[in-house]
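note to self — DONT lose this again. spent like an hour looking for the file last time. sequence + predicted structure for the chain T wanted, 186 res
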Amino acid sequence: MAVNANDLRKGMAIRHGSDVVIVEEVTHRTPGNLRAFVQATLRSVNTSKSSVQRFGSTEKVEEVMVMRRKLEFSYKDQTGFNFMDTNTYDNFTLQEELIGDAKNYLVENLPLEVIFVEEKAVSVELPSSVNLRVTESPEGIKGDSANNVMKIAVVETGMQVQVPLFIKEGEIIKVDTRTGSYMSRA
């Protein structure tokens, strides 16, 4: 299906040359008295390499259908990150390159969406926040509570998060997956 470059959106899959690419970022530009164009960051499904491309605003691009599947994270082993479709009980193993920074939020039984293009997993979409258990948290120093003083805590995935002084080891906290910042106690 052909669409105008103006209609490109983050997460779309398009055919670019002989490759299928995922649109990661889109910017519409109108420089002075020149013609408008669309600048897009594209990631190849086959090579996982990103590139920046310019399209004329009326240029046609071929959209490729994507399929979203709700999967649940099961475990990580030497072969990769293992997920299960809770409806069909199909298992999927995704490599660390595909998972990227999402690995900092993956805990057992976490539901998320995996995007497939032409039967191949191309990206992982996390929920906006996840609950993580604090495994290391130094004690706050008495008298350090003047103005929103924070300390570094380590959560069960190994990620470090800035948390308030009152958070202790063993507590479960809510972390924003977009910024990696502490939101609240869970």
